[in-house]
Structure formats: structure tokens, C-alpha cells
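Risk mitigation, structural track. In case the binding assays with adenosine monophosphate fail to produce interpretable data, a predicted complex structure has been prepared as a fallback.
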Amino acid sequence: MFKSELVAAAGERLKAARTVSIVSHARPDGDAVGSALGLGLALEAAGKTVTVALADGVPVAFRHLAGAARVVSQGDPHADCRILVDCGDIDRGGKAWLPEWPVDINIDHHKTNTRFAAVNIVVPEAVATAAMLAELLPLWGFEITPQAAEALLTGMLTDTIGFRTSNVTPHTLRLAASLVERGANLSELYFKALVERSFESLRYWGRGLSRVQMEGGLVWTSLTLEDRKVSGYSGNDDADLVGYLPTVRGAAVGVIFVEQPDGTVKVSWRARPGWDVSTLAVRFGGGGHAPAAGATIEGALQEVQEAVLAATRELLIHAQHSIEEGEH
Ligand code: AMP
Ligand code: MN
Ligand code: MN
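Fallback model:
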């Protein structure tokens, strides 16, 4: 799975470093938080001075993880070793990492990764960056402590939606089991990361769900600034509603449009197995994976929605043709 010369090159840089700066992406998900904290805690246990930076801080769902309270908002470009985790390109760090700052190690699983670091360990088949680290840390000779195991298992849980994505293999489950063996509590971490939610987010979902639309295999809805005000939801995201859109019987792709205060719209796509929405996201300036991708697009909600829905309909029609052609 890993190229041994890259693992060795990254390992040398890590072992030689006294100070390490770890950064992950803005609007962090569980893999961003879990892989950054898991790596940080393991390196700290090996005596290194570590800072973990996330431009938007740690979401409530992950604040129980060790080290969450020490996360800062900007990385240290002067650290001996500078690492970006779970970032497909250097801009993903947002305000936590300026694009002109050099990166020593890039650890990621996005197919769209732009290989921006001195050492790039990019494995698109990996279910999560945290899963890569669960393998890499022992290869480098660093111990995965119980607290690091909790962070890494959280990253695996969230990127696989509780081991429900089609890329989950026996190997994924063995890696997760190894983290449980090291002391991570699966049921507690599962509940915290994927099940528990705020009352406000439920009301916010209600607003989005009341406007949900379906056309062929396409299911979509939007969430507005007004929806957030009325429901009392304080984030600028979709509160994970998008994941429920392709659960509709007959759906292939779900899309959600989240109006932002700065005149942009955050678009998220989620696809059932067999569809690739990452190319669509790239076309709109974003990125991601075949089944889950996103982009932030400038423009009013209505206009972004029309452009994105047109492109997504086209993908569904063309891909459908190629699937049918491939069948005979
Ligand atoms: P989201 O829709 O934000 O939940 O993201 C789904 C997937 O797409 C995640 O793997 C993100 O890292 C990736 N992604 C989302 N937005 C962007 C973006 N603007 N650029 C690159 N990748 C993105
Ligand atoms: Mn992520
Ligand atoms: Mn990830």
C-alpha cells in the first residue's frame, strides 16, 4: 500500500525533528481532527514538542478527544517538521497554513491530491488519513498510545460513516480492531462522532428536509442563513444532512447547497457506489473522493444551485450511458 522509500523518507524527517507542526483542513471533519491529533499524540509520547493547528478549531463532536483543548488556529512554519494531514491541496489548511509556507510531509487519501510537500504519502484507496497513520506510525517505530488510538479510530469512523462505505475491507476492520486493542472504546467513540447531535441541528435539518427535491436519481436541498437563524444552529455547514440524501430509495447522488455569509455557497455531493462526484467538484474548484466531494462556489444560492444541478444531471446521464454500454 505504501511506497517504502517514501515511508523511510518521512520517518527520517520525523525522527530528526524536535518540534513538529501538524495542520489539517479548515471546517474539519472527524478525519481531519482525528488524524492530526492521533499523529500529534503519538509523536508527543515519543518526546517531541507538537502543535496541532486547525483554522476553525475542533467541532463539539470531537472535543472529548485528548489534545483537543490544545489545538491552535495557526501552524508553525518554523517547526523542524511541518506536516499537513487529510489535505488534498495546500490551500485546504485555510488560515492555519499559508500556501507559501513549505510543507515537509503530506499524508492524505484524496484522489485529487496535488503533491505539494517534500514527501508525499498519498493513498487514494485508504479509507481515511487516520487509517494510513494507524499503519504508518508503527512502521516509523512510534507507539500508538490509547489516546492516539481514540483519535485515529474517530477518523476512521467518520470517513467510513461507521464502516458503511463501499471501500471498507477486512484490512480496514483489522486496523480498526488494532486500535480497539490499544484501548479505543468503539461504541463510545461511535456514538460521540456519528450519532449524538444538538437539538438545534435537528431543527436545522427539518428546514432543509422540508424543501428536499428528487428528480431521477438526483436528490437535493439547500440550507440558508435564514434557516440557521430560525433554528439556532451556529455552524456554517450542513450539520451532516447531505449524507442522508442518497439514502432515498432510487437515489444515486445527493447534493446540498449551504449559503455562506461571505457570498459563497458550500456545495457537498454524496454518491452511491458506482458514481464518481469528485470530477464534478474539481470542475467547480473543489475536490474530494468518488463518493463524497465538495466545493465552495462564489455566487447567489439560486444561481450556484442551477449551475451545479445542471452539471450533476449531465454526469448522471453520461455515466448512466457508459454503465449501460459497458453491460453488453
Ligand atoms: P464535504 O462536502 O465538505 O463534506 O467534503 C467531502 C469531501 O470533499 C471531503 O473529503 C473533503 O475533504 C473534500 N472537499 C470538500 N470541499 C473541498 C474543497 N473546496 N477542495 C478540496 N476538497 C474538498
Ligand atoms: Mn477530511
Ligand atoms: Mn479523510
